[in-house]
Write a structure and sequence with these properties.
The structure is a homotrimer. By secondary structure, chain A is of the alpha/beta class. Helices cover 57% and strands 8% of the residues of chain A. The structure holds flavin-adenine dinucleotide (FAD) (3 copies), NADP nicotinamide-adenine-dinucleotide phosphate (3 copies), the ligand CCCCCCCCCCCCCCCC(=O)OC[C@H](COP(=O)(O)O)OC(=O)CCCCCCCCCCCCCCC (3 copies) and protoporphyrin IX containing FE (HEM) (3 copies). One copy of the ligand CCCCCCCCCCCCCCCC(=O)OC[C@H](COP(=O)(O)O)OC(=O)CCCCCCCCCCCCCCC sits at the interface of chains B and A.
């Protein structure tokens, strides 16, 4: 294999050098102070920048952007060489031009390729490449890019060609991003959480305090979260399936699939996965909050108190069959809903979704997804049961939280129900025809 | 990069074009109506079919099969070109010959390659390639196939060479399949579910109704499912390990590993993963049905009723140490069994199984798998405990469901126990020697 | 494609041959007894070793090492050919030199490449490549290695170049390893488990037996495991975050990042992932042991007994608001802690961690990791609550197990708290600067 030169004996330079040596590349370092320290892999030579550059056709610049100016005097030596820019910034769009483009301006005769910036020195060194193994590569010179991509592949990483050097800006921003697709779903869910928190606080704690002078402030720990979580989960789940229905209506109305959806709908449709997973997280919390109900001191005390007072009053309730049915049904519906919910989550795992075909993926996500929505809605409905119309459910004219949570699921399910009517369905299929 | 031509400006053509432009390919569309609409990526040219075809060596035919006949007049221009067939059908084996072969017949001078049919237009366009990134490629011309595979790789997808154009039929059927490996395990489990449903219905609901005139119909919601699920889970789990034991017996009997297993055994062994995962799903349901037991109205009522009547009768039961042991043991065994069950499930995730070596995978799947089976069987046994021989367990001569569920696990465990006897084990190892 | 020759018609030879034929390679087998049996793929020719070798440039030696000597007479014919060694051993470092090096010595004129030894014949044959798809390749001849890597790729597997033939020893050891990174975490956790088992046995069973003459031996099934598991989980979780803190202190003290950490610290930091996952497993057990508390016979009996005796004594406890708060808070903290714990586990899945960038991965693992630690510590603290100082918590001067478990978490959290003080944090950032 051809010798590769690395400028800079810092963390990244050393880590990359070590790894490349393991893969059989002869390495020569270019450094301001060319003494071999004991940290530098001993198979590598350390030379001055000029000497090192002359030994190789590819030079990896493992130095921060702000020091790049030391390269200008070397421009003549670097002419025709492949310069690999690996640098990152501290902020998104920190400089007007990307580091790679800046490097290309500084050394006009060289072929600049952007690569490796998403890989961490620590990960390279310790071999625990836990975060992404994808290496985005871009550059204007096709051949230079190929040479770099071959190195990437030899290191056991996956190169992804992103096109011309213009893409460097985006590649440099990538490692600074923090879950961009998750922002909207998370903020939405936090907003809903805050709203329902105050809603339930008023209904369950303040109301009792005002009218019954009872201090239920400890409801804040479990009882109220266990209202908020399922309610938010159900709403988010419905919001996952609402855009699909809206899209169908728009297509029916326009009579064609060959026109763009409104922007907000496009964005919404692209974050359905994240919305769904956040919903799953809330459902998970709901389930565990529910399962520990019998362990709570308050619940145990209330049970005990109820039994003792009944025993003392010599009173026993007869078994109510309807209640038996209702209680068991809503629990069973919840469990089944949660089961399919988790199944949706499992098929969202990249490695699972990657090993099913498109039809299977859509079968799970669309068919089982609606089944999940139906089960969860039914669970809430049956839980509400006969309490719906009872006036005691309204405190200060505020209905129960779960009644509010049912609105969007109902809208989605009714619209979907209308859309699967043969006449509409046929028309829709016709419009979408061509879609395999 | 070389210009690529795409025939058809429909959903798929546009989506693929867009993606290829991003990866640096110049694109030219061939269309019946060559006006650039605002949906077509503006970097692409739109020409008539003839003009477009002349500009490129590779032509992607993004048009449904039924319209392919428009290509016959173009045969001369397409001579020597690489034609990429991306089409899908609506039904498995819809036509006698595959679309790609049909295309090859229509344009005899061209080199036809099948590719991209498993990728969805929507996924390409929105960038959410959730379902498979694998692109199956086949074709009779080696070089043409290589050219297409390079494009596939450049788009960040994984090409998989499936051989000659004969494989096109299978590739076209692939996206129409719906979990083929899961069919047998799912039908089997549904069959078992139905059987045990009626079995328990008779034993638990109808029997009580007939003899005690009590209406336990609400048992259908939770109590009966919580009998069916664990029983089916245990049976399926045992069925996962039965074929391995049978295979060993066959090999011992034949004295060689160099002969095929009977067909049914081969098939059975290939769907053990799916059987195991379905078993896990049933176990999951059993666990959650069990965990909500104390929340059920019926259970709370029964507890309350029991306590009150005892209090009124001034009667207290002394603590029974054996019962304490039995109850705690079967629960602990169940939890441990479930734990290893989930562990088996986690190592089945493609990305996890992909990062362990074969010995580790088999250690988990085979050793821990048997441990799971032992724990789950012991859990059921201890749960049954002293009820086994009590006549009250037999209603209408029907034993408890869990007794039936123990039969296959026992067979498997006993056979396995015999097989690990040194004499047999040594012989078996000898036969299988060579197996790394 | 070029013809490939396979020596040996055993399990592995046949399976590989079959797979290669499917991928379009003409195959010729070299065998001691060249009759085509019905097990050998019928598209393949079976010849004598000499004849077969002459037909191909690549020869795969699918024969055990101990039979390699039959190759010496063939040395002349094998001159210049690529010999692929696929063999495995039964023990780590079984022979002084690796099988591939031994082969190279036997047939000096050939170019030996090590490959395929991690793939199982059964997996190749049945198509269920569940364990690793990575094929490690090494060899001294670059071109020969490339040829083999092309075959690997054509079979849908991932070749990983490991360098020169010296690496063969390591490659041959790889499939014999059994979770090397997991050894330390698992032994540590088993050690802790044993310690706390006896600790709790003394405190909870023997103490009661000695002083109250009560037989609580059945606590061994659930009560004691449900003390051990959370305690071990918490300690392991804290041990995950301790090395990071120590590393920071060392760097602060040394004033530079350019010097190696002590060896034990390096090793510790590399098994944090495994430590964390083992901790998750223990937490999982704790949660399920906790959730079945209300189902236990002992707990039901105790509740019942308590209620009846209160009812008989006509005594009711008033509701204690502080207890309500404490009980609900510690449960809520536990649930939240477990939630983030599972989240950490999910992001450890190779496919998930592979699709996030480094910043996102560290955000989850470091920020949410500390949040998990804080929540779990708080959960334990609040659970302990006012029992901390009560003398009844000390039996034979032994404090409660959870008090011991809090020591390391406290150390970690306090050190971390000190380290995020602006003055220290700034200094540390400066030292680590350059770290992207
Ligand atoms: C726990 C959980 C996990 C989830 N994980 C994922 C995930 O991993 N990935 C994911 O994508 N979603 C995920 N989701 C979201 C959701 O399940 C899917 O988006 C699901 O496919 C939506 O189904 P649908 O039937 O509403 O929409 P679709 O069937 O997609 O239809 C919606 C509309 O989009 C339009 N449309 C879609 N495709 C095309 C096309 N090719 N051509 C023209 N129009 C088209 C149609 O107009 C259609 O009406 C998840 C949800 C949950 C709850
Ligand atoms: C939750 C769960 C998940 C599971 N996930 C998976 C999964 O992801 N992948 C999977 O494969 N299974 C999976 N299984 C099924 C099961 O765990 C495995 O198939 C397991 O390896 C079976 O172990 P065994 O010891 O019975 O069989 P094996 O050890 O495979 O032996 C069975 C018989 O097959 C024959 N045999 C096997 N290999 C060879 C060989 N190379 N040469 C000759 N004969 C051979 C032998 O005759 C042997 O007696 C799962 C099971 C469960 C419960
Ligand atoms: C359930 C669970 C799952 C886990 N899964 C994983 C996993 O999949 N992968 C994984 O790695 N860990 C995993 N962990 C372990 C743990 O979460 C991580 O290691 C985490 O990043 C540690 O964070 P930290 O802030 O303590 O350490 P770090 O932020 O890594 O810092 C520790 C010290 O290391 C040094 N350091 C780190 N990087 C550099 C660098 N580039 N240059 C110089 N010095 C550096 C610094 O001196 C720093 O003080 C898991 C833990 C749990 C509980
Ligand atoms: N560390 C990572 O995880 C990581 C990940 C991806 C990308 N990167 C990028 O890699 C580059 C290097 O990062 P690093 O972490 O290795 O940084 P570092 O440890 O600080 O090393 C930087 C090296 O650059 C050289 N250098 C410093 N000042 C210089 C100057 N004025 N003129 C010439 N050379 C100078 C020094 O090498 P000599 O003393 O030998 O001259 C120094 O060791 C950065 O652009 C960074 O964004 C780093
Ligand atoms: N959509 C997917 O998700 C997907 C996935 C995999 C494979 N495919 C395959 O890709 C192909 C195209 O699918 P699509 O979804 O893009 O379909 P589409 O949206 O209906 O587009 C088909 C295109 O074919 C052209 N066309 C239609 N009738 C024609 C005729 N009589 N003669 C010549 N050209 C004609 C039209 O382009 P002009 O108007 O420009 O001529 C039209 O836009 C199909 O074979 C499909 O199976 C699609
Ligand atoms: N099986 C696996 O899962 C697996 C996985 C990775 C690597 N490997 C490696 O592949 C190699 C073969 O394994 P295997 O499982 O195929 O073994 P196998 O089934 O026992 O077959 C070995 C073959 O070697 C030939 N052979 C045996 N003795 C010989 C001798 N004295 N002289 C010449 N040839 C002889 C025989 O073929 P003929 O009768 O045709 O001469 C025999 O079929 C081993 O090195 C093994 O480590 C196997
Ligand atoms: C989290 C604890 C509760 C368990 C269930 C909630 C999980 C939902 C939250 C998932 C968050 C994943 C963060 C991914 C980070 C990321 O950006 O990840 C990005 C990746 C890849 O995204 P792209 O493919 O879009 O680039 O997304 C994912 O991989 C999603 C992973 C989904 C995981 C769902 C797993 C559910 C498994 C079920 C477990 C337990 C059930 C419990 C039963 C009792
Ligand atoms: C499902 C909810 C309950 C959770 C446990 C049951 C899961 C079992 C069912 C898995 C179904 C996966 C569908 C895969 C579709 C497919 O064909 O997928 C195909 C793929 C790949 O198959 P091939 O590699 O054979 O092609 O198979 C898989 O990926 C299997 C995934 C296994 C996932 C198991 C995950 C278990 C994790 C444990 C989570 C929760 C535990 C809860 C604790 C309280
Ligand atoms: C196990 C049952 C309990 C569930 C939680 C505990 C799981 C922790 C143990 C994981 C063991 C994984 C063995 C991996 C073998 C291996 O070496 O695997 C090696 C791989 C890859 O390692 P490298 O990348 O380091 O090579 O490691 C992994 O893949 C780790 C997988 C982590 C899986 C965590 C999944 C948690 C999902 C949450 C599920 C359930 C929550 C339940 C909610 C109620
Ligand atoms: C294992 C699965 C489940 C169980 C055991 C379960 C159980 C319960 C219980 C016991 C309640 C009543 C809570 C109370 O009394 O305050 C409840 C309410 C509710 N559940 Fe579930 N549930 C499950 C899953 C789900 C899922 C997946 C959803 C949907 C997202 C959901 C949505 C709701 C809603 C909206 C309420 C009403 C909340 C309120 O206002 O009190 N549940 N569930
Ligand atoms: C967390 C783990 C588990 C717990 C807490 C648990 C608990 C229980 C309980 C309480 C019962 C009695 C149910 C009743 O009274 O009707 C039971 C029964 C049973 N369990 Fe489990 N279990 C667990 C896991 C498993 C697993 C993994 C299996 C195996 C597949 C299993 C198989 C069975 C069987 C076969 C029965 C008898 C069913 C019947 O006929 O009633 N359990 N379990
Ligand atoms: C769903 C989540 C959780 C719930 C419901 C929960 C519940 C409980 C309960 C009820 C106890 C008292 C046990 C007893 O009375 O013996 C307890 C103790 C404890 N928990 Fe958790 N817990 C959860 C998660 C966690 C997690 C994630 C950790 C941390 C690793 C943890 C650490 C502890 C510790 C150290 C104790 C004290 C054990 C002892 O000495 O008794 N818990 N938890």
């Amino acid at each position: 294999r051809e010798t590769v030169c690395i400028f800079g004996t810092g963390d990244f330079g050393r880590a990359l050098g070590q790894k490349m040596i393991q893969s059989g590349y002869p390495i020569v370092f270019g450094s301001r102070s060319p003494q071999t320290s004991n940290l530098i892999p001993k198979e590598a030579e350390v030379l001055s920048h000029t000497e090192a550059a002359q030994k190789a056709a590819i030079i990896i610049i493992a130095i921060q952007r702000q020091h790049y100016d030391f390269l200008t005097p070397l421009a003549e030596i670097l002419r025709g060489k492949v310069l690999v820019d690996v640098s990152n910034n501290l902020k998104i769009n920190q400089y007007p031009e990307s580091n790679a483009e800046y490097l290309a301006q500084l050394v006009p005769g060289a072929k600049v390729v952007k690569a490796f910036n998403t890989v961490s020195a620590w990960a390279l060194q310790s071999g625990t490449l836990d975060a992404s193994r994808q290496v985005f590569v871009c550059g204007d010179d096709m051949e230079a890019k190929q040479m770099v991509m071959d190195i990437v592949r030899a290191l056991g990483l996956t190169p992804l060609d992103q096109g011309s050097l213009l893409a460097a800006q985006e590649i440099e921003n990538y490692p600074l991003q923090l879950f961009p697709m998750w922002k909207f779903p998370i903020f939405l869910s936090l907003g809903l959480t805050a709203f329902f928190f105050f809603y339930c606080l008023i209904r369950d704690v303040i109301y009792s305090y005002v009218y019954e002078n009872k201090d239920y402030s400890f409801f804040i720990a479990i009882s109220i979260p266990n209202r908020i979580c399922p309610v938010v989960a159900l709403i988010l789940l419905a919001l996952v399936y609402l855009p699909g229905v809206l899209a169908a209506i728009i297509q029916l109305y326009r009579g064609t699939k060959y026109s763009r959806f409104p922007d907000w709908l496009d964005k919404w449709m692209l974050c359905r996965k994240q919305l769904g997973l956040v919903a799953l997280a809330f459902a998970f919390l709901h389930v565990f909050y529910t399962l520990i109900i019998p362990i709570r001191y308050y619940v145990r005390w209330r049970t005990e108190d109820g039994i003792i007072s009944k025993a003392l009053n010599n009173k026993t309730d007869p078994f109510n069959n309807t209640n038996g049915w209702l209680s068991d049904s809503y629990l069973a519906l919840g469990i089944l809903g949660f089961f399919f919910f988790v199944l949706l989550g499992i098929t969202s795992l990249p490695s699972v979704s990657n090993s099913v075909n498109w039809r299977e993926f859509r079968f799970v996500q669309s068919k089982l997804g609606y089944l999940t929505l139906i089960l969860c809605t039914a669970h809430t409905l049956v839980y509400g049961g006969n309490r719906f119309l009872s006036p005691s459910s309204y405190r200060w004219y505020l209905p129960n939280a779960y009644m509010l949570s049912l609105i969007i699921p109902f809208i989605v399910l009714i619209l979907k129900f209308v859309l699967i009517f043969p006449c509409l369905d046929r028309q829709l299929t016709q419009i979408r025809q061509g879609w395999e």
